[in-house]
Amino acid sequence: MRLKTVIADDEPLARERLKLLLASDPEVEVVAECRNGNEVVSTLKKAQIDLLLLDIQMPGKDGFSVIEEIGLPHMPRTVFVTAHNEYAVGAFDVHAIDYLVKPIEQKRLDAALARVKQRIRLDEAFATREQLSFVLQTLGADASKDRYPQRFLAKSGNTSSLVNAVDVEWIEAADYYVCLHAKGKTHLIRESIAAMESRLDPRKFVRLHRSAIVNVDHVREIHRDGRAEGWVLLSTGERVRLNKSGWKKLTAMQDTSY
Q1: Could you read off the pLDDT of 191-204 as tens digits, one per residue?
Q2: How confident is the model at residue 258 (pLDDT cuts 50, 70, 90)?
Q3: Long-range contact list for 152-159, CB < 8 A, 24+ apart?
Q4: Which one of 13, 39, 79, 154 has the lowest number of neighbouring Cβ atoms within 10 Å?
């Protein structure tokens, strides 16, 4: 771990003492010294800083004004340094990691640095966990997407056609074939309707009876003729027969508008 550190204090002797105390920690690299709030703001806007040792009372802008201008979400890990105890509550209100009172002792500074390093490790662990979670979710989504065919290859003589799954309105059994009805055309695939059903995304395709599967995105109305039979109206105006089992499947699906 290498902490790029800025010391901000208007007193030269205070800055020198902090540098001397920080020199005992090989993981701390002092990259800048600031004499007032304006210099702190300028430094933070130009460079990526890991740790800011910030005096509260400085000419121009005080420590709290620096945080207000930079914005709390964009501040580096901050340890306040001051000669006055009364600022402690305000320091922790702006999420300072620690609060050091002058004159600063080595033991107290080391404790503050330990807290800073612990916070960095926790932040990194959390970020890694979030990244891993995102990757797993993405992979899971991709795996789910790849699990079901996104298009079908339908052959007719010497010609083959690619039919997008989203364009298929319904699928009809025809002996050893299935007919894909899509965009006003019919495409034959040599496959049983049971085999086709097993390959389709059940969140999108529902088998209405033994000879028909519909794409729920193309269903506009559901009609019942008695308790056992019925039919659905598709976006194309076509009607497809529906049995009791198919009706239950359709009405049980989540996120429908029926």
Answers
A1: 899 999 999 998 89
A2: very low
A3: 152/180, 152/187, 152/189, 153/189, 154/180, 154/187, 154/188, 154/189, 155/188, 155/189, 156/187, 156/188
A4: 13
Over its C-alpha atoms, the chain yields an Rg (Å, rounded) of 34
Question: What pLDDT digit, counting tens, does each position of 213-222 carry?
Answer: 999 999 998 8
Size of the chain, expressed as the number of residues it contains = 258
What sign for the dihedral angle of Cα 98, 99, 104, 107? negative
Which residue carries 């033991």 as its tokens? 107
Per the listing, tokens 């990244």 go with 131
Reply yes or no: is the peptide bond before residue 103 cis, omega within 30 of 0.
yes
Question: Hey, what domains does the chain have and what are their CATH numbers?
Answer: 3-137 (3.40.50.2300), 151-252 (2.40.50.1020)
What's the CA gap between 61 and 41, in Å, rounded? 9
Structure-token pair, residue 108:
């107290």
Which residue, chain included where needed, has tokens 């010497």? Answer: 158
> Which two three-digit tokens encode residue 256?
């429908």
Please state, as a whole number, how many other Cβ atoms lie within 10 Å of the Cβ of residue 209.
17
Contact 169, 182 (CB under 8 A): yes
pLDDT of 132: 62
Amino acid at 242: L
C-alpha 45/C-alpha 17 separation (Å) is: 26
Q: Which residues are CB-neighbours of 199 under 8 A, at least 6 positions away? A: 148, 149
With beta carbons less than 8 A apart as the criterion, state whether 30 and 14 touch.
no
Place of tokens 């028909």: 212
Cα 188 from Cα 163, distance rounded (Å): 11
Neighbours of 166 (CB within 10 A): 12
8 Å CB contact between 173 and 212: yes
